[in-house]
Structure formats: structure tokens, C-alpha cells
Amino acid sequence: MTPVSIHEYAVTDAAGGPYAITTGPDGALWFTMVHSGQIGRLVPGQKPTRQQLDPGCGPTIITVGPDRALWFTEYRAHRIGRISTDGSVDEFPLPSPECGPFGIAAGPDGALWFTETNTDRIGRITTDGQITEFPLPVAGAFPSAITPGPDGGMWFTMNQANAIGRIGMDGVTVVHPLPTEAAAPVGITAGRDDALWFVEIAAGQVGRISPDGAIMEFPLPDRAGRPHAITPDRDGNLWFTEWAGNRVGSITTDGVVETYDLPTSRCEPHGITLGPDNALWTALENGSLARIQSVATTPAR
């Protein structure tokens, strides 16, 4: 097993609920706090700062926009938020009532694309706040995470439809059912192998789908670990969180899996990202961020 060091850094109390995390254009880690309605910022080695939003808005996924600001979904307030690196905030109500926006990612067209879990729609918002919504061809799909693909489309998980979807810039959607029933995919990311990688929270598997729709699934050692989010590292491996298993793991593009227990029990890891220091960082719902770094070993003589 590849040796790693894991260190946890408290950024709020347990009631804050760090949830998703990304690296901003300013060399800082930006993260949502779903329970306290805050956006946090941490430069590795410095003290964290927090920006208070509506306490009940439920900020969930956060991503870097094409305008070098941070964009996030407000799941409970049914809005899309934007925070600049100097801390100014704008919020955009969505047209569909009670739509439950969750995933968000920048598209190749200079806009942000997001999922609406409760209304079976994919949304698009320009950096000046113009919103378009596209209905999905499946009812009750619960679209969740979304990411740009290598083919110019946006790929997303359909948690309750047990499928991976793709939407083009023209709004046309293609649905790819998963081989495993009731797998409940959540997190998805673009790998460095020109494929999309995703996690199946109910099946305890990592999946890979190529742009032509070919799917492979890789069972994890703990099928009850509840994998949640996934991201590539600088070497092209994929790292994921297991919130029920209290661990993080990695998988190579040929399917070799390694897992690592987190130091604090019941810390509930959710989002994960490659940090500005080339380490992996994950948001722990117990109030901390964890830094995961590979440890170089000295060959035996």
C-alpha cells in the first residue's frame, strides 16, 4: 500500500458541517458549510475565514467559475450563489420552485451548469445571472453531481434513475443506465484518461464511463462504505471519500484500489479536491478539513 500522511485542521465547530471543497484561483481552499450557511476559505498554513450567508440556505457544492469567482448551490434556499475572492456575494433565485440545486460545474461555453434534484432538470446560469432550465427525459431521476466531459458535454449522475446522463450545449440529453441495480451514483469527475469516473453510494463501487457510453464498475473492499465524492490527483489517479467507512481511497485507471482510514472516528468525509499544495483535501462534516499527502519512501539498501 502507498504510504500517506493524514492531518486534520479544524475550521469550524461540529455544527458547521463542512461539505464540499474546491481550490480557488487565489491559491486557497474554498468550502461550503451546509448546516451553518457559510462559505469558508483556508490558505494552507493560515487561519480559516468564514462568510456568513442566510443560515438556512444549505450551501452544498462549490466550484470555480469562468470569471474566477466561486459559484455554489444553495440547496435549501433554491438559489445559485457567487462569491468573489474578496468576499462579495451575489445570489440568484431559480425559476422552478423548490427545485433543490445540488451539483454545479463550469461548462465549456463560459457558463455554469447545475442540477435540480427535485424537478428533474439541468440548469445553466451565465456569469451575469441569466438562467435556462432543461427538463430531463426521466422522472424522479434526482440528478446530483455534474462535471464537464472530454467531449464538450456536461455529464451528471442520476441518483434515483440509476444512470449517468450527458447534456450537450444544445440541451439534448442522453441517458446511460448502470449495470448494477440500485447503485445510486452521486459524485462524478473527469479523469485524465478521457473518461468520466463516478461513485455508487449504495453499491459501494467506483464506476468509469467513456464518452461512447461504455461502463466499467470496480467494487470497493468495503461495499458499505458509502462512497460520496471523487476527484483526480496530479498523477491521474482518482481519489474518493467514503463517509460511512470514515476513510478516503484511491483507484488507478486500471482499477487498483487502496483505502486509508481517517484519524477521527465518525468524521463523515464528503467533498474532496486537489489542493493548491498538490495534496488531497477533504471536507469532514464534523468541522475539519483533512489533508492527505503521499509519503515518499526511501528504497532499502
UniProtKB/TrEMBL annotation:
Query: What Pfam families has UniProt attached to this entry?
Result: Vgb_lyase
User: Which residues are responsible for catalysis?
Assistant: 270 (proton acceptor)
Self-association or partners: how does it assemble?
A: Monomer.
The record's function comment reads: Inactivates the type B streptogramin antibiotics by linearizing the lactone ring at the ester linkage, generating a free phenylglycine carboxylate and converting the threonyl moiety into 2-amino-butenoic acid.
The UniProt record gives the binding positions of substrate as 228
- Enumerate the UniProt keywords alphabetically: Antibiotic resistance, Lyase, Magnesium, Metal-binding
Which gene does this sequence derive from? vgb
Q: Which InterPro entries match?
A: Vgb, Vgb_bact, WD40/YVTN_repeat-like_dom_sf
Q: What class of enzyme is it?
A: lyase
Under which EC number(s) is this enzyme classified? 4.2.99.-
User: What's the protein name?
Assistant: Virginiamycin B lyase
Family stated for the protein in its record: Belongs to the Vgb family.
What cofactor does this one take? Answer: Mg(2+)
Single annotated GO MF: lyase activity
> Which sites bind Mg(2+)?
268, 285
What SUPFAM superfamilies does its record include? NHL repeat
